[in-house]
Amino acid sequence: MKLLQIWDAADPHERTAWKRYWEEWPGHEVFAHPDYVRLYAGQNVRALCAVASADGGHVLYPFLLRALCEEPYCQVSLGDCTDITTPYGYGGPFGWGTAWEPDTLGAFWDQFDEWAARLHVVSEVVRFSLFPETLVQYPGDSRVVSENVVRVLGNEDQVWRDFEHKVRKNVNKARANGVTVRVDEKGDRLDDFLGIYTGTMDRRNAGESYYFPREYFERIQQDLRGQFVYFHALVGDRVVSTELVLVSAYRIYSFLGGTDAAWFHVRPNDLLKVEIMKWARSAGKREFVLGGGYTPGDGIYRYKLSLAPSGRVPFSIGYRMFDADAYKQLVESRRMFTSAQGLQWQPNPNYFPAYRS
Fold first, then answer.
1. Dihedrals φ, ψ of 153, to 5°?
2. How many Cα neighbours within 13 Å face the side chain of 140?
3. Between 61 and which of 50, 54, 82, 310 could a Cys-Cys bridge form, CB atoms 3.0 to 4.6 Å apart?
4. Are 319 and 351 in contact (CB under 8 A)?
5. Is the pTM of this model over 0.90?
6. pLDDT tens for residues 62-116?
């Protein structure tokens, strides 16, 4: 039984097929859209998806295939090795329609593993969706790595009462200070967004991976129309807090944003979040995924929890090793390479794959 197809977003015909398949899925999770996944493709990174349909059930598994040949610690003998990861955000093997029988699901993963062996995939790590009911069973190991916060968008009055007191106080303060919120579905104020976002990352000493070039946002605006919205909190016509939200069929995701530190005193971000929820509710969305913090339990996480005190959701990763020997060689190669630079390196025991820690 042939189930599996692998499509590459770099191929126009396969990208079209991928997008058509995605459009047939009621969930329309933005993280599985080919134009979202290919935001993270590059010279040695391919944006791929595995798809299969059988007996009324469907699977769409988007992922990045990363070549290891350009890693400085990769030996010549390992030059054809690759590994798999999830694009920034949430993913996994999404499934819909009729649930597959175990034999059918097993055949899908067997065929995927055969493909992976041909591409010399060493390891795989998956950032799972926060909604396990949207996924088919993963054949590898999994573990909870942190908590995220999800705001269920029920009755507006009930949601308001559920906020921590300080949130309601800050929203009222923002309104009293004349803060208003504008919805921007095209990205007309991208310059304002970028200025505040970059300043926020600088203030938080964020890692390099959080600094996205302007082209990244321009591609979102061009290729993902209907799957994103900017929200801007303004004092007069000045943007003082801003957020880029990603949009799926049933939920929205807080993606990237920030606040101008000079305007903290008017508490614009609390009002911004409340107006985002109001927009989402009117658009028929069920949940607002606020995400987590930089580190477990940090101030960012606690702030998000103040908007959804009962909204704690476990965030899990899945992982597996396809080639144990190559995996061990890569770990040892990195150790030897680092030692040759006069440095010591030990892999983080909580990071997978270890050779990238």
1. -95, 75
2. 20
3. 50
4. no
5. yes
6. 999 999 998 999 888 888 999 999 999 999 999 999 999 999 999 999 999 999 9
